[in-house]
Amino acid sequence: MDYRPEELDFLDILTPAEVEMLSNAVRTIFAGFSEYQRYLHLPKDPRLWSGSEVGLWLDWCQGEFNFQSLSPNLRGVPGRELCNLEREGILVLSADCSAGEILWEHLRTMCQELDFLDILTPAEVEMLSNAVRTIFAGFSEYQRHLRLPKDPRLWSGSEVGLWLDRCQDQFNFQSLSPNLRGVPEGAVQPGARGDPGSIH
């Protein structure tokens, strides 16, 4: 099949409402891939897929979207190489514009939805954790120097501000919401893992 650029923009003939409706339908189908992915123990990051794992993904897509034909050019391509392709590259390899658009969108969606820690190796996660713990440990000396209570629930609004200043300096935050400054004593309650806390 010859590649003709004018065929690539088929979404241009749809109204914005139709594009949104189509996008929602496709995202709903994409969400179903997560269960299949877990069942086959495929890495969450498609860039880590082997050529055979890419083939399993293509089989799933072909079954879900009823592609009439799918070029064999995509099979056996390692995940990293596939994800490094631009949209047009996927469309050319798929040899079917509709199928190529869906494959491209699914790859893009999976990469965007990755958590930061998902793209790190276990060794990198451990190294990052150790670095953060080292920085946290340094706060104890700062805390004693300023005579801040050990229990953050006892901090006044100004003491919360001192803690924020220290964190901003140590972690080089580009911006920090002013909403946190001046929070009254006892308002910040440490939460469970995954929940940074709540303000009463």
Automatic annotation (TrEMBL):
<feature type="domain" description="PNT">
    <location>
        <begin position="28"/>
        <end position="114"/>
    </location>
</feature>
<dbReference type="InterPro" id="IPR003118">
    <property type="entry name" value="Pointed_dom"/>
</dbReference>
<dbReference type="InterPro" id="IPR013761">
    <property type="entry name" value="SAM/pointed_sf"/>
</dbReference>
<dbReference type="GO" id="GO:0043565">
    <property type="term" value="F:sequence-specific DNA binding"/>
</dbReference>
<dbReference type="Pfam" id="PF02198">
    <property type="entry name" value="SAM_PNT"/>
</dbReference>
<protein>
    <recommendedName>
        <fullName>PNT domain-containing protein</fullName>
    </recommendedName>
</protein>
